[in-house]
Design a protein that fits this description.
Layout: E1 2-4, E2 9-11, H1 12-42, H2 48-67, H3 71-93, H4 106-119
Antiparallel strand pairs: 1-2
Length: about 130
């Protein structure tokens, strides 16, 4: 499937890749804004348990950065970081983080779909 953007054909693969990149940037900037807001509001450092979850988020955000050049590797890091985030939440607090934390996996899913399209030879439709 192709989409026409101002007299230019854009493949599904490219749209998925752009979606992964843009959503990764949006999620990172949103998370950064949330953290800065919390630091200003509370004016104190978070509990040490929060740093364990932050380690998983570092893995997720490193995956976002890799998505720009290496879709498969970046996707794997995003998925490992997301699973790690849920595991760390379960281990440190005894409860799972909310399902809204799965939003962090969306750029990885989009990049993995783009990688799969590329691997299969891209778009086959005219």
């Amino acid at each position: 499937m192709n989409t026409k953007l101002q007299n230019q054909q854009v493949s599904t693969t490219q749209l998925l890749r752009w979606g992964a990149e843009v959503s990764g940037v949006i999620l990172f900037v949103g998370w950064l804004g949330f953290v800065c807001g919390e630091l200003v509001k509370t004016n104190e450092m978070p509990a040490k348990e929060a740093f364990y979850g932050a380690a998983a988020l570092v893995l997720i955000f490193a995956g976002y950065a890799l998505l720009w050049r290496h879709a498969l590797t970046g996707s794997v890091l995003v998925f490992l970081g997301t699973v790690g985030f849920f595991a760390i939440g379960w281990i440190t607090t005894g409860i799972l983080p909310g399902l809204d934390a799965l939003w962090f996996a969306i750029p990885g899913v989009l990049a993995l779909l783009a990688w799969n399209f590329d691997r299969r030879g891209g778009d086959t439709s005219p």
